[in-house]
Amino acid sequence: MYLRYCLYSKYAAKNVSKLRRTISNSIRHYCQTQNSPEVNVPFSNGRTLTVSTGEYARLADGCAVASLGDTSVMVTVVSKPKATVQGFMPLVVDYRQKSAAAGRIPTNFFRRELGPSEREILTSRLIDRSLRPLFPDNFNCETQVICNMLAVDGVNNPDVLAINAASAALSLSDIPWNGPIGAVRVGFIDNEVIINPTRRELQSSSLNLVVSAMKRNLVVMLEANANAIYLQDLQKAIKVGTKESQNIINQIEKLQKSVGKQKRLVDTPKELSEETTEGLRSLMEMRVTEIFRNYTHDKLSRDNALSEVRNDVFEKIKASFEEIDMNLLNEAYNKIVKQIFRNLIFQEGKRCDGRDYNELRNISCKVNMYKPLHGSAVFQRGQTQVFCTVTLDSHDSALKLDPLSVLTSGVKEKNFFLHYEFPPFATKETGRIGPIGRREMGHGALAEKALTPIVPNDFPFTIRLTSEVLESNGSSSMASVCGGTLALMDAGVPISSPAAGVAMGLVTKYDKENSNIEDYRILTDILGIEDYMGDMDFKIAGNKKGITALQADIKIPGLPLKIIMEALQTAADAKTHILSIMNHCIDKPREVKKENWPVCKKLEVEVHKRSRLLGLGGVNLKKLFAETGVSVSQIDDTTFDVFAPSQRAMDEADEIIQKLLTTEKAPELEFGGVYKATIVEIRDIGVLVTLYPGMPPALLHNSQLDQRKIAHPSALGLEVGQELQVKYFGRDPVSGLMRLSRKVLQVNLR
């Protein structure tokens, strides 16, 4: 109204400057009188989440800011008006950490944010998996979600705030989305469930769980790492987290009703005519059904058989319908195949490979594959095969984290880390070999979370575990957990107990109109095709005691808690069976050392002997590493850490170190005694002298050379090899260096 008033008053204004002042004052008054809408969500622990909108990024389709404590995250969403692809939802989530939000400057050469870090990529995947299931099936417009950190207090983590802000931004926008959702982080301390724990509380928590849920207590996404938490405690935490999420959903809906935009209409997708669809079904239904009923098929033979049917059916359809759209035909074919596959699971009571719903594939494992490796194992489950290796190195090889990740996670470096590789030949494909992709990074991080609780914190070496997928037909990340456990035990790492993992699947009869599940089947140890055509990929890992990691990717709009609890219980039973099979291969860490295992020890060196060990500029340690491969790092004034790649190298290094530290017995010098010193080197600050053969050079400073003040030893005409009379005043109590003086022996001529 103020702007309209200003425009109307334009014709009456006699002075342009007066008109400008009027408009400026009107706009200022309008902004002051308008408050950005916000809602507050109180939690049971007294903390409050605030979600607001309308203040920033008003040109985006949707924008929301979520704040908890002094941490605030802004999320914007923008979607193109027209679909760019068919049969796929092109959703991109970009979560970026900003050093400025934490009052820091990036430490790289350019002093600016560069490519996304591992933590940023993993958080982007976390947000993506929470949002993607709620987009309509036929919505194919390119959509981008950008999460921008405004402020980070180092107490409250911004990742869960980003999920809630993204939920609010999508709900307030005109983008079709069946939300909102709510997300909370759940901790478990002293048998109590903590909602949205602080960074310090997480360090003492046995559980770090993120729950994303929608209305009616339907779970959309789960991700957790835990310190072998009991199954019943985990189930309790999921229930509490889902309940707390409902408060966030209610408040976002309240905000949506007040300032939300009307949702845009989704274009009705083009479909084949009913005649063409029936012809397609009649040509393929029986043949595809027979392929899925043939339990002798493996991954390759089943794919080849389906490919032959596809090619034959497409040729016949094109002969009858020359102007048919091949994209629509391909999409219709895939839908029918998926429907046949899912119906057979309900009708036959068996899966496409002949297994029962809760039956595992055949499992085999081997350890100690190659002699030069510190630890190695091959784990085979059906047609999924992983090769794991363990490398032990010094603490200097620990993985250092960037400053902002340290601030948000509280972890400065990692003494154990897992690297996961998925080459294209694992699925009989050709592709790019190069930097790790987002998918590989996510699978590796999940396997690392599963194994970290069983690795000792005080282990004297840095552990690098690699997992290379050689064959893949489902659940390669959980196979990495099993193979990684075997490789760690083969390397003699004293793990607390073996861990194993399994992937659970789900097939439902889902009523889209009522958003209700009419019937379902939970599948244990799913195949790749069951993951692709199913409704859930629920990965669960743990040891005999409890759960160490889980990750649930749900492909329909939410699952009831009943199904989640049933899947957890079934997975726990399967995990126990897998552990019993692994124990037949190796049941405890190897105790007899391998010849190539590294060794380390602590070396105590007297303060005045440090210079003998180090040498000028550390030349002795550099020479030791070049000759033997043994590295020596200083811990404190008198303690050094010695790391050798093998016992043989350590024995060789011991001889060299003893020669450096052991010299002819030095004569005992009397405090206040006068001795003859020989100059061995002249420096700007003084001269280096020795009092007896084999003695490490000691510095005679310029201030102690003469009673007169001199800037350089050359002023006195001193030369290398010249002998001087010096007085000995013992050793410095801090540095251990000799204290010598020549000027005290000179007669004061004044």
UniProtKB/TrEMBL annotation:
It comes from the Eukaryota. Residues 46-176, 179-243, 359-494 form the Exoribonuclease phosphorolytic domain. Pfam families: PNPase, RNase_PH, RNase_PH_C. This is polyribonucleotide nucleotidyltransferase. One of its GO terms (cellular component) is cytosol. Its EC number is 2.7.7.8. Residues 278-356 form the Polyribonucleotide nucleotidyltransferase RNA-binding domain.
